[in-house]
Amino acid sequence: MEINTLTSLKDKWIVFINDMQNQICKGLETEDGKAVFISDKWERPGGGGGDTRVIANGAVFEKGGVNTSVVYGEVTNLMRSQLKIEGSKWFACGLSLVMHPINPYVPTVHANWRYFELYDKEGSIIDRWFGGGADLTPYYLFEEDARHFHQTLKEGIDPFGKELYFAYKKNSDEYFSNTHRNNEMRGIGGVFYDYLRPKDEQDAEKLFRFQQANSHAFLKSYLPIVSKRKNNSYSEREIEWQEIRRGRYVEFNLIHDRGTIFGLKTNGRTESILMSLPPRVRWAYNYQPEVGSEEEKLLQFCLHPHDWI
Amino acid sequence: MEINTLTSLKDKWIVFINDMQNQICKGLETEDGKAVFISDKWERPGGGGGDTRVIANGAVFEKGGVNTSVVYGEVTNLMRSQLKIEGSKWFACGLSLVMHPINPYVPTVHANWRYFELYDKEGSIIDRWFGGGADLTPYYLFEEDARHFHQTLKEGIDPFGKELYFAYKKNSDEYFSNTHRNNEMRGIGGVFYDYLRPKDEQDAEKLFRFQQANSHAFLKSYLPIVSKRKNNSYSEREIEWQEIRRGRYVEFNLIHDRGTIFGLKTNGRTESILMSLPPRVRWAYNYQPEVGSEEEKLLQFCLHPHDWI
């Protein structure tokens, strides 16, 4: 389907998201070279459904998912109180991905782009917004990789405003933070934005192109890092550290991530939501990396936001 | 210190809890035969502190903790809104334990006994209550073990009222439930009770003895099961299932457990709270045990509460 023949932003967004899912899955599969994504399509009882695409036991990726969903329904009291939204009906469509590589030298990555519409009783749009972002969770810190990731995201955003990357990078640092661990970040951040509301139709088109630019930047920001590190040799020591850090990933997602918690408490599709969790994870009491080690270096970079540009 | 020479319930409870911590650690160490508990004493900035005792890499227990804490402070707005409590100052003292065995045929166990006091501005007690319970999380179901666990807890409680076990067993079934997974229980339950408020001093003494009876039942309910199963042979298959089920344990604790969430959001001591998490954990997309397998049998028993008496 040609996007430009469609009239509503909503319809164009659905086509775009489905196309992006195919592109991203293909790019990741090619990088993996062994495993392929399996599609698990589902329907939502209250309206809509999704296409959960999962990959497991690849040459590079141990576990991951690139999911799309197009869902809609009545605004519930829970949504009114927790999401502070008004209106009668809602629509949401987005793509959400998390990839957990086997090799501890290859970072975990997460990205999400979404669009939301709210309607009054007559079905007229009363509110709409875009949200999204991408963030990187390395187990070992290569500063050049961190710079590449942030620089590439910035280049996608820059045409829309030179100040935007810095604002959305700050959001990301603040959001992906384990407040119960002295604000230790889940990784080294990226960009994160929400409630981007178009002022008019022209602005809506611009935000649509902004979302396209962000999602097109994704593979360029991540795949070169995977390529460069996927053949690094590692031992039990690096695996143990990877599993400990993955524990922090689980803690963030289950304790703090608004989307995860809201999804699980409102009867979302549990398996699609929890595809974000890593395959092997470890917890040890009061685990501390050796002073001066590469593990401690990573931890130091997670303890305070860092300027990567 | 002789408990009976102390006058306040609070002081007697503190002595009792510390003594119980020693007894339980000793019983578990003897069963393990290799590892010993390490004591990590800590102070709470707002008042009080605790003794976190952890064990790791034993012959039987892979990871576990038997923690006590005696904490107090000012009632905060967060406590008023989330815990619905009134008053000016509070005091809490309790023991909380979680043991994760290596062998997938030995169940994980959790128990907790606590006492809470609330004071007005003048320091007079305006409210006080006991809470607690114990519950079992097997990876493979031996019905005789489940019956032994529940029966032993019931025998501890029965002298205080023949109906109590059934009420507290029902609480446990309802509480330890992963509502985001169709109410699948974390394990096979046990007993759970909270807000047991004494009517008068005589009743307070009775509730104190009730807590003593419950905690004395703990080792008797659990150790014989450990003894019986700790030398069972197992393979990778059982380990994989154990790790998958441990994932559900993590989900319950981080998404639903009131104590964990409240502790983490109110600046509790993170490492002491999260000592409950298992050492090795696994997540796989939409994991389903084979129909008719021992793994599926366990799952079936977790899907619906079962009468073990």
Structure report:
The structure is a homodimer of 309-residue chains. Chain A is built from 9 helices and 10 strands. By secondary structure, chain A is α+β, with helices and mostly antiparallel strands. In chain A, helix 1 (9-32) packs parallel to helix 5 (201-229) and helix 3 (143-157) runs antiparallel to helix 5 (201-229). Chain A is globular. The two termini of chain A are 38 Å apart. The interface between A and B is medium-sized, with 32 and 32 residues. Strand 10 (280-282) of chain A pairs antiparallel with strand 10 of chain B, so a sheet runs across the interface.
Primary descriptors:
9 helices; 10 strands; homodimer; alpha+beta; two-stranded antiparallel ribbon; globular
The overall strand count of chain A is 10
Shape of chain A: globular
- The number of helical segments of chain A is 9
Placed side by side, the strands forming the largest sheet of chain A appear as 1-2-3-4-5-6-9
| Binned strand content of chain A | 25-35%
Oligomer: homodimer
State the major sheet of chain A: 7 strands, antiparallel
